[in-house]
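Why should sequence recovery work at all? Because a backbone constrains its sequence more than one might expect. Tight turns favour small or flexible residues, buried strands favour hydrophobic ones, and helices have their own preferences. The token representation captures these environments compactly. In the example below, the structure is given first.
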């Protein structure tokens, strides 16, 4: 069985430039063959012998998104590997290697997977590598101290080429800037970008308890303003959901009324339980996160309100 050939056929039908073949037909043929799936999930070294990969990179990528009708043994084997092997967890077929849809990120889309404590710890550890976490803050502080110990300051200047423009800049600032650029390019930054990166999907996943999420939501963002931006992004994601634009009308509710809307109102508007449940669960999620970590300005508002009372 030539897994590489089969995988390449699937890859070119999805990601090829130009695409060749019917991706749906090819995938349907593959996913109904247990032998192909079980062979595809086996771990091997890449052609440069630098890191671990799986035999069928594209096959495994699609398995993680179309998991409902595939061989359970193959899928479970892939999940076990994803949650125990950093190289495999960080594999990205769609997007950049430092922020695309990684295997680990995609595995979290399936809320039916029951994770062990060690698997949850593995995922959370990967998420803590993202820029903006308390771990990243500790790393930055150590780097700043290293610059101090080396006597690197902005009193001395250097020149930095930014998009073809040569600019004078202090050596300390230049060092910090370049450090950030290299950090953002690292494969440890896999697992999504923006508001809905791995941190959102861990907090959204039912495997983690309320108590665990209480700690994680504090560790995932050391900066209150950045955390508030992420939370607002999730809330606006609900308001701007395409389901709210029926017949080209304005959204169902303004963001100020997000937590006042009733389930029955949503059900009447959407007309189907699946959409209603999806939107309702997102609202309840944001409500929970606000309870676990109220935005700082709200804390201050309630403190002043109690003082006036």
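From this structural description, the recovered sequence reads:
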């Amino acid at each position: 069985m030539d897994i590489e050939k089969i995988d390449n056929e699937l890859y070119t039908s999805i990601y090829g430039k130009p695409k060749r073949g019917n991706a749906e037909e090819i995938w349907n043929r593959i996913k109904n063959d247990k032998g192909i799936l079980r062979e595809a999930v086996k771990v091997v070294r890449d052609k440069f012998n630098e890191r671990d990969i799986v035999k069928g990179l594209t096959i495994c990528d699609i398995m993680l998104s179309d998991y409902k009708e595939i061989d359970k043994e193959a899928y479970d084997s892939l999940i076990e590997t994803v949650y125990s092997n950093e190289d495999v967890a960080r594999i990205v077929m769609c997007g950049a290697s430092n922020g695309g849809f990684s295997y680990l990120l995609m595995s979290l889309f399936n809320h039916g997977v029951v994770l062990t404590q060690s698997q949850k710890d593995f995922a959370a550890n990967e998420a803590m590598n993202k820029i903006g976490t308390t771990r990243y803050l500790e790393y930055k502080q150590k780097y700043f101290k290293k610059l101090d110990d080396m006597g690197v300051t902005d009193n001395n200047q250097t020149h930095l080429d930014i998009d073809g423009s040569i600019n004078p800049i202090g050596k300390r600032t230049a060092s910090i800037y370049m450090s950030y650029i290299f950090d953002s390019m690292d494969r440890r930054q896999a697992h999504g970008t923006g508001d809905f990166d791995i941190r959102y999907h861990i907090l959204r996943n039912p495997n983690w308890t309320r108590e665990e999420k209480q700690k994680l939501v504090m560790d995932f963002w050391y900066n209150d303003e950045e955390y508030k931006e992420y939370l607002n992004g999730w809330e606006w994601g609900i308001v701007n959901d395409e389901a709210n634009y029926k017949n080209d009308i304005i959204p169902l509710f303004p963001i100020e009324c997000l937590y006042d809307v009733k389930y029955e109102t949503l059900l009447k508007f959407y007309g189907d339980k699946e959409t209603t449940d999806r939107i309702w669960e997102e609202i309840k999620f944001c409500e929970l996160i606000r309870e676990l970590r109220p935005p700082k300005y709200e804390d201050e508002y309630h403190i002043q309100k109690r003082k006036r009372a």
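A few observations help interpret the result. The radius of gyration is 23 Å.
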